[in-house]
Amino acid sequence: MRYTLRAAPVTNRPTTTYRNEGHVTFQVGDKVIYPNHGLGIVERIEEKTILGTTCGFFHLRIVANDTTVLVPVANVDGVGLRKAIDDAEVERLFTLLGDGKIDNHQNWKGRFKDNSDKMRTGSIYDMADVLKSLTFLSKSKSLSFREKRMLDRAKALIISEVSEVMRQKALEVEEQVDRALEKCFTTKVRNINRSQARAKVATATKTGIVATATKTTIVAAATKTGIVATATKTTIVATATAKPVMNGKPIVASAAKPMVTAKTVMSAKPVKATAVPPLVAGRRTAARAS
Hints:
9 strands, alpha+beta, Methane Monooxygenase Hydroxylase, Chain G, domain 1, 15% strand, 5-stranded antiparallel beta sheet, two-stranded antiparallel sheet
């Protein structure tokens, strides 16, 4: 017989309403998961009157410790009560356990808070994330007492649920879980190594580019220095062959010119004869005779 129960709001008079449109539908014999308690079996559904209010309750027998838990029908959504996974979801679970994707927070408080929130959801996939991250972390450092207890709890809840669904012994399921985790960690380490190798290649490439740029700069500088040296040499040669400079202007070599130009001393005009005085003429004649 299947029941869908939903308690009506509490009023002054004891009234309880059962509606088919309730949020969760379980029947006797269903395998359900009660977060942080594990797999339970619905043994019966009954009504109880508490403080004048009649409510429906699911009686769950917890498989792990064979205890009975009463869950109010009206509080099913609040506590995260859900049905156990089926065979198809078991396959998906092991795929998730071995996919190599691990969320690992470095901050302890943030990590613990996230993992605690996942454990409270009751989702087996959230518990698988907690199991992967804490198991991987435990391989490199010691876990705190609270994280160690959370790790053990997540693993126990997953094993108990899969064991009941697949009708296998818990030890066999645990071996399957361990193999999936080892596959996950191997994939994780391989991905880390690949990332580091790519980072080294990128760094080497970047360094090579810088070295090439530096070499180019040096060559350019050397070339520039050579150009400057050539220019200097050219300047020296040009200076050696340059013409003398005076007053900022070069002296141009030219044919030697006479310092004094030849000029006619006497005019070419005829000289008129003048009369010689007699005394002078006599003296000249005497001079000739002697």
